[in-house]
Amino acid sequence: MKTIDELLADGVAGKRVFVRADLNVPLDGTTITDDGRIRAVLPTVKALAEAGARVVVASHLGRPKGAPDPAFSLAPAAARLGELLGADVTFATDTVGESATSTVAGLADGQVAVIENLRFNAGETSKDDAERDAFAGQLAALADVYVGDGFGAVHRKHASVFDLPKKLPHYAGYLIATEVGVLKKLTEDVKRPYVVALGGAKVSDKLAVIDQLLGKADRLLIGGGMAYTFLKAKGHEVGISLLQEDQIPAVKEYLERAEKNGVELVLPVDVLVSPEFPDLKAKAPTHFTTVAADAIPADQEGLDIGPETRKLYASKLADAATVFWNGPMGVFEHPDYAEGTKAVAQALIDSPGFTVVGGGDSAAAVRTLGFDEKASSGGKFDHISTGGGASLEYLEGKTLPGLAALED
Ligand SMILES: Nc1ncnc2c1ncn2[C@@H]1O[C@H](COP(=O)(O)OP(=O)(O)OP(=O)(O)O)[C@@H](O)[C@H]1O
Ligand SMILES: O=C(O)[C@H](O)COP(=O)(O)O
After folding, report:
1. Which of 22, 186, 265, 349 lies 20 to 30 Å (CA to CA) from residue 129?
2. What InterPro entries does this protein map onto (predicted)?
């Protein structure tokens, strides 16, 4: 994979450089609630602008349906990028139309523009190769060089990620180079004990990675919404907790294989339960109780790991040489159910091992709970990945279209 340093060494002054970023940030209306993904692409954009390139930044945001939708405009992200760069960033109100063409033509050396959401065009995400290729051709007309730096989207076979780099000289940006460098350490020559903590809500998305990790990790700590499918597979009542019934046979097989392979698969011993899901907007106090994980009342829902589990998981993380954590341990958006996620975040910070947090929601969780890469309590996470699905698919050992295209 050629990196941006080679491009800079060759000289980029006056060249139009297309930077495929992942500016898919969480929004509350037009307010960005976590700008981590914008900050992550700054080194690449700054280096190119300082070298006199005419920088065209492109990204998707959310999942619009292949047509313009103001709710998914990249305008707030473009404004934030300008603030962080301390420079004017022009914004094109379309992607390959008149606004984009004239905006790019108007760029002076060292200036930066953002074009509108790539997914406002059906060609971006199309399953039809010819349709994607045609859209990639239109994007290619906007630039002389391609820099891939949207790590969070490299697992998508989309026009701007997979087809466009084939049409232009292509390089990996600093973020992709860093992310791949870190995740490689978790797949090759990993330092042991290697402990993986998994939570969150997307159980079916994460089963494939559990399948792979059973051959790689020494210990798997399961929390969040996915824990209840495991508890149910062990024959326990889970009440009205999040459950993926169709995954129970697979989970039973994982429990058996973990035992056979000598992998410690650790489940919650106690959980916080409530008769109803909390209101995440009002955040009003809820009625919850702590119960043993094998005694969840039939009319209640598990919403966080309990105090004994927090201690147990912290002890299982204390001697880890390598830790990968994906997915919050509970409904951390509500203060009543944030303690499990906080405890695991703190255990990673206290860990002397190499610690990586992966996942859009997990990264947002640690930052909104007051932790970040430079957490003040003496330690820090070694790396917070900007990719959720992307980092998991990388760990699964899958070929990621956006990385393969940069390697060609
Ligand atoms: N016990 C639970 N019941 C229901 N939802 C839960 C529970 N525990 C955690 N969650 C929810 O899981 C969500 C995050 O899960 P997700 O799988 O999306 O995480 P992620 O992998 O970090 O994010 P992404 O896949 O977007 O990168 C949070 O919104 C949280 O409220
Ligand atoms: O949020 C993410 O994981 C990336 O931005 C990819 O978004 P997608 O899942 O909508 O393709």
Report:
1. 22
2. Phosphoglycerate_kinase, Phosphoglycerate_kinase_CS, Phosphoglycerate_kinase_N, Phosphoglycerate_kinase_sf
Query: Is it true that 4-178 and 190-396 share their CATH fold?
Result: yes
Contact (CB, 8 A) for 350 and 302: no
257 part of the active site: no
The reply to whether ligand 1 has any atom less than 6 angstroms from the CB of 333 is yes
ipTM tops the 0.90 cut: yes
Tokens of 371: 């932790």
Which candidate in 20, 157, 202, 310 is catalytic? Answer: 202
Half-sphere exposure of 307 toward its Cβ, with a 13 Å CA cutoff?
4
Q: Nearest Cα to 40, choosing from 213, 182, 224?
A: 182
Q: What residue segments make up the domains of the chain, in order of their start?
A: 4-178, 190-396
Measure the CA–CA gap between 32 and 21, rounded to whole angstroms: 16
Q: What is the pTM of this model?
A: 0.85
Give the count of beta carbons closer than 10 Å to the beta carbon of residue 189. Answer: 7
- pLDDT tens string 323-353: 999 999 999 999 999 999 999 999 998 988 9
Q: Is 37 an active-site residue?
A: yes
Beta bridge partners of 383: 356
CATH architecture of 190-396: 3-Layer(aba) Sandwich (3.40)
**Which strand (E) or helix (H) includes residue 138?**
helix 129-140
